[in-house]
Design a protein that fits this description.
Length: about 140
């Protein structure tokens, strides 16, 4: 049984890498668009978002070192928080950063695309983190 968990974990690392690196790139793009859509956004909020979104990248290094539970936590927590907050602000509440209520303009379509990509990548990242938790737990139970 432990061989199966090792196989699952080996297969998850490239998938997690694609998701986390892609997510970070889209976050930078989305943040750039957000600062143009809402120029009143404080610089420290943007900096905090960048630093927070580096945690899943750190999780990839933990994953590669075999620290699967730490890696899954570093990926799952920031991405799930971002999914909830971003989902609420970009898809539920009315405002200038809601993808359905944005005023027309040159930045509307890129902002909408980046918000949808973030939701998709955050969902996939949470799934990979949960699979990593499960495989690591099964591996530990088998040993």
């Amino acid at each position: 049984m432990q061989n199966n968990e090792n196989h699952i974990l080996r297969k998850l690392l490239p998938f997690a890498t694609f998701i986390v690196v892609g997510h970070f790139a889209v976050v930078i793009w989305h943040l750039f668009l957000l600062l143009k859509v809402q120029p009143s956004t404080p610089w420290f909020a943007a900096l905090l978002l960048v630093v927070t979104n580096l945690l899943p990248v750190v999780g990839l290094f933990a994953f590669a070192k075999g620290r699967y539970n730490l890696a899954a936590g570093l990926i799952a927590v920031p991405l799930s928080v971002a999914l909830v907050i971003g989902g609420y602000t970009h898809f539920v509440t009315a405002g200038s950063d809601n993808v359905f209520w944005m005023p027309p303009g040159a930045l509307r379509l890129p902002f909408q695309i980046s918000a949808v990509l973030l939701a998709l990548l955050e969902s996939l990242g949470c799934y990979v983190a949960l699979r990593t938790f499960a495989a690591a737990r099964a591996k530990h139970a088998a040993s």
